């Protein structure tokens, strides 16, 4: 499965201009260092949340690189990836296209800036999508096949690790093409057969890749083969669900969001909620995770089921209506949190917000409107004031009776 396409920012060229004019950001002494080491520093800075510093370093290497050299190719790819990260998609695309001019078939070794990366990025950043994306994915797959063949001819411990990584990347690229044939090119006569051949090859290359199993499930869902889709999704989940959070083999956040959606689609709400609860622990600012959790709980309520941990009660002792209300209560809380984050983060997905509000309004009709904590506090304060006044009245009355 390919990475989601980054959203283009409105301020597209301001960062480029500021970096290009920042001639003194890298000292001459640093520029005498190995350029590849400087590009590694830029990558580290990007990973540690310093994109402007990373871009300044990488751009200076690119500006000083000899034409058509491995250094220029390395720098073009690095600068392109930094621009993707900061949302400057047009500029990123321009750098990857320049890299393609220097390594048109992706056979230059990655150590010299070649390989499949630029093709895979262009597939995801394509403005045209459809066939244009497929073309770039296929160039990336061809490059990866070449790299994999070379690694298999020179087996060794280090090569074995790299081989697994390249096979995983190739399988994901094949899945990226399959997803295009399920969406943009679904109208083509051979779309289904193309999907079958692509997912078959992906499974041969990386049979235990969670993303590949999720793509298999998507294809089976489109074919209305729900049980097979369920099996694939549960296999995907089992591969990583018991691993510690820091394990690098756990799929990225976006892939697991996709997994939760697919699990909901095949009526595996409890498993989907398990995935979403873990995602919330990792990032409690994810609007989509809170929204999907709320929707998932609402679907459980429709089945008169409750999440496993509600009151830690024995579900067999609860009435169906009790379980339904427990799920609705939890659903409303998740959805309200999602809507609150929408406001704070200025979230732009109007359809998500409208659906969340619709679900909350439906629950309010059944459960009754919730009283906000502030309102409850005001009511308690008012009650205390009335009690104080009554006490004072009684005290005055008692005084008068004593005087008489």
Q: Which regions are unreliable across 5 or more consecutive residues at pLDDT < 50?
A: 1-29, 383-404
Q: What structural class do helix, strand and pairing data support? A: mainly alpha
Number of strands: 0
Main beta-sheet annotation: none
Count the DSSP helices.
Answer: 18
Mean pLDDT: 84
Strand content: under 5%
Strand and helix order: HHHHHHHHHHHHHHHHHH
Q: Tell me, what's the shape?
A: globular
The span between the termini is 91 Å
Q: What percentage of residues falls in helices of 4 or more residues?
A: over 70%
Radius of gyration: 28 Å
Give a verbal description of the structure:
With 404 residues, this protein is mainly α. The chain has a domain at 276-310 and 319-370. The chain has helices at residues 14-20, 28-31, 35-47, 51-64, 70-85, 89-102, 117-125, 130-153, 157-182, 191-205, 210-222, 226-238, 253-265, 269-282, 287-302, 320-345, 350-367, 373-403.
Secondary structure elements and pairings:
Blueprint: H1 14-20, H2 28-31, H3 35-47, H4 51-64, H5 70-85, H6 89-102, H7 117-125, H8 130-153, H9 157-182, H10 191-205, H11 210-222, H12 226-238, H13 253-265, H14 269-282, H15 287-302, H16 320-345, H17 350-367, H18 373-403
Short structural description:
This protein is mainly α and 404 residues long. It is built from 18 helices and no strands. Helix content is 71%, strand content 0%.
């Amino acid at each position: 499965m390919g990475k989601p396409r980054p959203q283009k920012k409105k301020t597209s060229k301001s960062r480029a201009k500021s970096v290009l004019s920042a001639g003194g950001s890298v000292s001459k002494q640093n520029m005498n260092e190995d350029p590849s080491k400087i590009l590694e520093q830029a990558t580290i800075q990007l990973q540690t949340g310093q994109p402007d510093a990373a871009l300044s370093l990488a751009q200076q290497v690119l500006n000083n690189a000899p034409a058509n050299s491995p250094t220029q190719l390395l720098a073009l790819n690095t600068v392109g990836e930094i621009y993707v990260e900061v949302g400057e998609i047009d500029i990123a695309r321009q750098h990857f296209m320049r890299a393609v001019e220097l390594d048109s078939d992706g056979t230059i070794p990655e150590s010299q800036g070649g390989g499949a990366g630029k093709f895979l990025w262009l597939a995801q950043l394509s403005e045209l999508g459809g066939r244009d994306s497929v073309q770039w994915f296929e160039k990336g797959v061809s490059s990866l096949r070449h790299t994999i063949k070379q690694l298999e001819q020179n087996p060794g411990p280090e090569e074995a690790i790299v081989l697994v990584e390249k096979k995983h990347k190739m399988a994901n690229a094949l899945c990226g093409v399959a997803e295009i044939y399920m969406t943009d090119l679904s109208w083509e006569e051979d779309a289904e057969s193309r999907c079958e051949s692509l997912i078959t090859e992906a499974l041969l290359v990386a049979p235990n890749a969670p993303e590949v199993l999720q793509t298999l499930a998507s294809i089976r869902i489109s074919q209305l083969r729900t049980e097979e889709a369920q099996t694939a999704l549960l296999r995907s989940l089992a591969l990583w669900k018991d691993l510690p959070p820091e394990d690098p083999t756990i799929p990225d956040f976006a892939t697991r969001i996709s997994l939760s959606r697919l699990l909901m689609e095949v009526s595996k709400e409890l498993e989907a909620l398990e995935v979403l609860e873990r995602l919330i622990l990792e990032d409690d600012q994810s609007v989509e995770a809170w929204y999907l959790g709320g929707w998932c709980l609402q679907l459980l309520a429709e089945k008169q089921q409750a999440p496993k941990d509600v009151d830690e009660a024995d579900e067999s002792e609860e009435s169906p209506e009790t379980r339904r209300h427990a799920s609705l209560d939890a659903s409303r809380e998740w959805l309200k949190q999602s809507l609150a984050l929408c406001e704070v983060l200025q979230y732009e997905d109007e359809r998500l917000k409208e659906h969340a509000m619709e679900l909350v309004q439906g629950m309010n009709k059944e459960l009754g409107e919730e009283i906000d904590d502030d309102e409850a506090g005001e009511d308690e304060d008012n009650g205390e004031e009335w009690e104080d006044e009554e006490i004072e009245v009684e005290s005055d009355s008692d005084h008068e009776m004593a005087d008489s």
